[in-house]
TrEMBL record:
Recorded family membership: Belongs to the cytochrome P450 family.
Listed name of the protein: Cytochrome P450
GO molecular function: heme binding; iron ion binding; monooxygenase activity; oxidoreductase activity, acting on paired donors, with incorporation or reduction of molecular oxygen
Keywords: Heme, Iron, Metal-binding, Monooxygenase, Oxidoreductase
Keyword Transport: no
Length: 137
């Protein structure tokens, strides 16, 4: 996908990792040192996007949404390899279009009050987000 507006690349990559917190992926993993045996249930390991995207050893200040962040490793929200989300590029494209339209139609947008967050399970985000912006003629 070619991004029309390069300034949106940072926010588009990091917003899903900030807002999607409770997605689990089940993976099959065998215990090291224990031989695999036919007919035996494999050990299971879960990957939790909240933990994967918040590792301070991988991401500088991982809990801060920094729209100017560059050079960070890819986030884990959309999976990887053969388990990569088929809709990931569509989600990025939709987010890019929404941000471009919002910045045009809502200039000088700023928060005017607290923005309490929903619990960190599933899709997260503020329960309310009071904002003001300049009128567009």
């Amino acid at each position: 996908m070619r991004m029309k507006n390069r300034e949106l690349a940072g926010p588009i990559e990091w917003m899903p990792s900030t807002l999607i917190n409770g997605i689990h992926s089940m993976r099959v993993q065998f215990t090291p040192g224990r031989p695999a045996a036919l007919g035996r249930e494999p050990d299971r390991a879960k990957k939790h996007a909240l933990a994967a995207n918040r590792d301070p050893a991988v991401y500088d200040d991982p809990d801060r949404l920094d729209i100017s962040r560059v050079g960070a490793p890819a986030m884990q929200t959309f999976g990887a390899g053969m388990h990569y989300c088929l809709g990931a590029n569509l989600a990025r494209l939709e987010l890019a279009e929404a941000l471009a339209i919002m910045t045009r139609r809502m200039p000088n947008a700023h928060r005017t009050g607290p923005a309490p967050w929903k619990p960190l399970t599933g899709l997260s985000g503020p329960t309310t987000l009071p904002i003001e912006f300049d009128a567009v003629p």
